[in-house]
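Q: Can someone sanity-check these two? First one:
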Amino acid sequence: MFLKTRGVVLQTIKHSETSVIARIYTEQLGRLSFMINGVRTSKSVSKAAMLQPGTLLEMDFLYQENKKLHYIKDFKRAHVYQSIPFDTRKSAMLMFIIEVVSHSLHDHEENEEQFEFVYDQLAELDRSLVVNAFYHLQFLLFFTQHLGFFPTLNYSEHNPVFDLQSGHFCNGNGALPNMMNASESAVLNALLHSTPFEKPNIACDRQVKNNVLEKLLQYYALHIDSFRNIQSHHIFESVFA
């Protein structure tokens, strides 16, 4: 059957001289793989540009339930990025978001609210006037609301340490390996009470912020079996220095 849906391009791989295989996160059916013919020619440069990771699409495609590869009849941009391609920080954020989303999904896993969150975050990143240097951490946290392991909001004087395994703040006794320290946990608590795209009122040095990022990626890996080898976050060490 033919379907019309929005999509977010996750990855594109060359298949032949003129074709590609694209992994696209679709609103209606989750992550799917598509064979797209004739886009790697001199006459199809504009079409090929639409298949860059992070592009927001409107798609018309043939879906066959038992097929691994589906065929797109037509596609166009659903949102034309105005600032992301020209802003190094925003481009780094987009690359990171796409890599996180790619590693968090399973094929054919439908969740329209989750899709809406990702789609809206990318569009808002493009519209935002100032890049919030904590936004990648906020995205990681608020995306977990849709993935099913949002941290418990129980931070207190008696529970000042975050346990990555349980997703709860605790007293820190026992020195378990999957824990944030007190400074990192305080930053995490402040982020949990923030709003994406609004800079949180957090005073911490770059090393603590980087540690929180690494611990949050560890948090994802503990709760999503397929979540491994995220690399794009290393760029933050230079562009957000």
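And here is the second, same format, sequence then tokens:
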Amino acid sequence: MRKKSVGAAVVALGVAGATLLATGSAGSHGYTDSPISRQKLCANGTVTNCGSIQWEPQSVEGLKGFPAAGPADGKICSAGLTQFAQLDDPRGGTWPATRLTAGQSYSFRWQFTARHRTTDFKYYITRNGWDPSQKLTRAALDPQPFLTVPYNSQQPPATLSHSGTVPAGKTGRHLILAVWTVADTANAFYACSDVQF
């Protein structure tokens, strides 16, 4: 009887592991650290009371196709994952912010722990007049990404930087949404970075 129970448990674990691998949700993936993302701020202890994201900054993965698809409004920074809902909390607009200069070049950097083949990287920024004390919605973002980096199904290195121009005319506090679209799964990775102009 005991052998059957152990055997059944091993089979169940094997099925669960295979399911995770098939869905692309197993393991870890990537996040932005320049400008520093909310998940990285939680992981390095700069921000506390973050829940499980502090151990998994690389796992903010949701359906791709943003903005037509992907996570729902108000759940964009967490990629719609309830275990990472702390990332959607605006904390009264008090997340630490990276200082940027509008209209200037900036080097955006991703750190990868699983290097998926990649369609592209896109960066969106909030509109002027956006309220940083509110959860992020599509309506709060400029409609087009200010930077798109095609990657042609290539596999990125462990660390990837690329330069782009931060939009001119931005003042005060804003939020940059970085979206890494994976080519070989149905998902993308999302990272929200608070910035101050």
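A (reply): Looked at the second one. Confidence is low (pLDDT under 50) at residues 5-28. The chain is about 15% helix and 30% strand.
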